[in-house]
Amino acid sequence: MLYQGSCHCGAVQFEVDADDKIKCGDCNCSICTKSGYLHLIVPASKFRLLKGASQITAYTWGTGIAKHTFCKVCGIKSFYTPRSNPDGYDINVRCLDIDVNQVEIEPFDGKNWEKNAHTLRHMSVDAE
């Protein structure tokens, strides 16, 4: 199914191909907890930025692999390149034009990221 999404102000708009029934992760690490991020990791081929490339800025720390991208206008992180899947995108389900109450949310222990990251690796691989 093709989902539309955007930041709060609409300067950044995108679409993502995902299953009809979305399963996402609720990570307990410091950045995800503070931002209320719900994770949907997809292969790069399933994500398309429609508008706003010039309105995006990035934040990195630690290894520098994860590229946390934000709208320069409203500050919302709609998607980013995750450390666990640098070949894909991690979409904030709360930024999709859907009813989040219809989404299956699974907890993810990001406080212990090194121990659990391997469970995410398969998510950015295109199904054959």
- Write down how many β-strands occur, each being a DSSP E stretch of 2 or more residues: 10
State the end-to-end distance. Answer: 17 Å
Computed CA radius of gyration, to the nearest angstrom: 14 Å
Oligomer, anyone?
single chain
Structural notes for this entry:
By secondary structure, the protein is mostly beta strands. The chain is built from two helices and ten strands, in the order βββαβββββββα. It has helices at 30-35, 113-116, and strands at 2-6, 13-17, 23-27, 39-43, 47-51, 56-59, 67-71, 79-81, 88-92, 104-108. The strands form three sheets. The chain has a five-stranded antiparallel beta sheet with strand order 4-9-8-7-6, with no helix packed on it. Strands 1-2-5 form a three-stranded antiparallel beta sheet, with no helix packed on it. β1 and β2 (13-17) form a beta hairpin. The protein is globular and about 35 Å long.
Which key features would you list for this structure?
2 helices; 128 residues; 10 strands; mainly beta; three-stranded antiparallel sheet; five-stranded antiparallel sheet
